[in-house]
């Protein structure tokens, strides 16, 4: 069902893309013709203007010849003033050319306007195909009532503000904090918790733009910790910087050699074979690396891969998530949404009024990708279910932890025998714990 829906929308999208490509080709040709017509029209008008100026000059001034007898004396030049002639009008041929050029331009403009207007209908069909093939009613999969509580709404605003801080958009985060009247301690926590990631994110962007200075400075500061974790990012950054110098040609050969001697020394044992291969790149300097087996170092894919390796290793080192809480929630929700819509149809066909059979759990189990799996909530070893606010974890006097529901089910009055050790105790002495 989902594949058929996607195929239907994709068909409409391909149709629009094809029409756009055709319109682009047609428009390019038509605009070129219009430009040619306008150039020809300008030439005709310039020629007509020159003819008019010449006619006016010759008809308003006349000099007498020097050898004509003159009663006022020999050799005296006399200027004869005559009445200006009527301005020369355009010839019939020139008028015909102008009218023809304007008519053709108008026809082409009208044609382009019509084709562009027809494209709007094809674009609107995409939206109709989406509405026809995909459900737009998600009300049964949502619980808007939880946002009516002030604390929950503040948590959402806080997650959004942290996401902005991670992207380096501090000004947007401050505007959100101001408009939602976030408490000062919460606002400070937003910037304090994301300050380290903001630096990592900035370096990540720099690597993708092929700037390595800040990334190398960061790895030098954390060199010992990275080596303890057997991270490859420090060597990869030095390797890429070395290849940057080599790619600049013979003029940077000495600088590349000095860089290798200075920075590859600590990696000589672990990456001996790879360093030897890097040194062989000097052979291809006269012809350029783009014509050598090392040309893949010049491709953007290498830099993108390097940036994500840095992001992953840096976040692991600092103990922070490389994805914001907001992005994790949205991506996990998009993964769960199709399954929830399917179960909604089943429950409606069986006249089940609500989708939620519990306060804090989904009606079905959603299989998420590993990057969305977190286990920050205690799972009861007896009932094999995660604890919640309504079913919190309880620590027994013997030190073992079970859920509150398991505690009541195992209790006989006030007497409880620990399911892991034979210690009998008072169930009321169990203490709630927090993870």
Automatic annotation (TrEMBL):
- InterPro entries cross-referenced by the UniProt entry: CRA_dom (IPR013144), CTLH/CRA (IPR024964), CTLH_C (IPR006595), Fyv10_fam (IPR045098), LisH (IPR006594), ZF_RING_GID (IPR044063)
Pinpoint the RING-Gid-type domain residues: 380-421
Please classify the protein's predominant subcellular localization into one broad category.
Answer: cytoplasm
> Which cellular component appears as one GO term in the record?
nucleus
Keyword terms: Cytoplasm, Metal-binding, Zinc, Zinc-finger
* Zn finger (RING-Gid-type) location: 380-421
The protein here is known as: E3 ubiquitin-protein ligase RMND5A
Upper classification of the organism: Eukaryota, Metazoa, Ecdysozoa, Arthropoda, Hexapoda
